[in-house]
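Hey team,

Filing this mostly as a record. A colleague (T.K.) asked me to run one chain through the structure pipeline before their review meeting, and I want the input and output archived in the tracker in case anyone asks later how it was produced. No errors, nothing strange. Just documentation.

Input sequence:
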Amino acid sequence: MKIKTGDTVIVKSGHYKGTTGEVKAVNRKTNKIIVEGVNIVKQALKPTQANPDGGIIEHEAAIDASNVMLYDSKAKAGVKIKAGVDKNGKKIRVNAKTGKEIKGGKK
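Output structure:
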């Protein structure tokens, strides 16, 4: 998987198609990611001592990583990425079309 936490992605299929958001979490085993503002679900909570009223909360659910593309803010579009190597021999992510390095992820 080439998506990292902190990347900005665009959803390319499903109900939220065309929506951009930041990746909050990545699960490499299940190939799922959680994107801010995408795939909002409602969950009913039973009353507890900490939350005596209970209620309904909304939160983001995971979506498959194959349904998103890395978003390039300059091109205003999703981009395909591939692996590359910089001058120092360090692995980097490269835009497959232009060959330029893609920055992103957690700082």
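Quick notes for T.K.: The longest strand covers residues 20-27. The mean pLDDT is 90.
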